[in-house]
Design goal:
The protein is α/β, with parallel strands linked by helices. It has two domains: about 1-35; about 35-220, Beta-carbonic Anhydrase, Chain A, CATH 3.40.1050. The chain is about 55% helix and about 15% strand. It contains ten helices and five strands, in the order H-H-E-H-E-H-E-H-H-H-H-H-E-E-H. It has helices at about 5-25, 30-35, 55, 80-90, 105-115, 120-135, 135-140, 145-165, 165-175, 205-220; strands at about 40-45, 65-70, 95-100, 180-185, 190-200. A five-stranded mixed sheet has the order 2-1-3-4-5. Strand 1, helix 3 (about 55) and strand 2 form a beta-alpha-beta unit. It is globular. The chain starts with a helix and ends with a helix.
Length: about 220
């Protein structure tokens, strides 16, 4: 058996242990899960393997709907993300859409430092757009603080983009309860922080964005 095959068998073995432990701890868990999916939350996060969505908020399978991509980007041309949002909002009736970035994000580092990484450069360009939008302020910060400052700015911009999607705008127009949030996760301490961008209607978006942006700037100016 090759090393690669052995490693994959380890994953399968781990899965069987997990399934057995889960069923033993909560008999009938999988049969109930098969019959329904009723999450209240859509998590739009980074694809980084150090940021496992369900585990961070201690939710079981079926309780959190998840979409992940490099640097937790929400853009209006990304039909993958928009399709996930549409299914979550229109079909599953999630009540909260949470855009979550994380400290020391590799995609944000690449965007900040103009690093070329390959095909992903075209995707990271969206984060570079955020950098350019806030470049004058970022330049006032010590270099060591710029990455995490841009991480937070990126969360705010992507959460605002989520608010402006047709999916969320249409839900608000028909009176459906959907609240968009912007959070950041600290790799160094395992804690999630609310960046205070919370919008429950179209009228909330701009005031919430301005308050959250002021909060980010105040926090990093200290």
């Amino acid at each position: 058996m090759t090393t690669t095959n052995h490693e994959l068998q380890d994953l399968l073995d781990n899965n069987r242990r997990w399934a057995a432990d889960t069923e033993a701890g909560e008999p009938g868990f999988f049969s109930r899960l098969l019959k329904q999916q009723t999450p209240q939350y859509l998590w739009i996060g980074c694809a980084d393997s150090r940021v496992p969505a369900n585990e961070l908020v201690d939710l079981l399978p079926g309780e959190l709907f998840v979409h992940r991509n490099v640097a937790n980007v929400v853009v209006h041309s990304d039909l993958n993300c928009l399709s996930v949002m549409q299914f979550a909002v229109d079909q599953l009736k999630v009540r909260h859409v949470i855009v979550v970035g994380h400290s020391n994000c590799g995609g944000v580092v690449a965007a900040l430092k103009d690093l070329r990484v390959g095909l992903a450069d075209n995707w990271i360009r969206h984060v570079q757009d955020v950098r350019h939008m806030h470049q004058a302020w970022l330049d006032t910060l010590p270099e060591a603080r710029r990455v995490d400052a841009l991480v937070e700015l990126n969360v705010l911009e992507q959460a605002r983009n989520a608010c402006h999607t047709t999916v969320v705008q249409d839900a608000w127009a028909r009176g459906q309860e959907v609240v968009v949030h912007g959070w950041v996760y600290g790799l160094h301490n395992g804690l999630l922080e609310d960046l205070a961008l919370t919008a429950a209607s179209a009228a909330d978006v701009d005031p919430a964005y301005r308050r959250a942006l002021a909060g980010v700037k105040a926090r990093h100016a200290g």
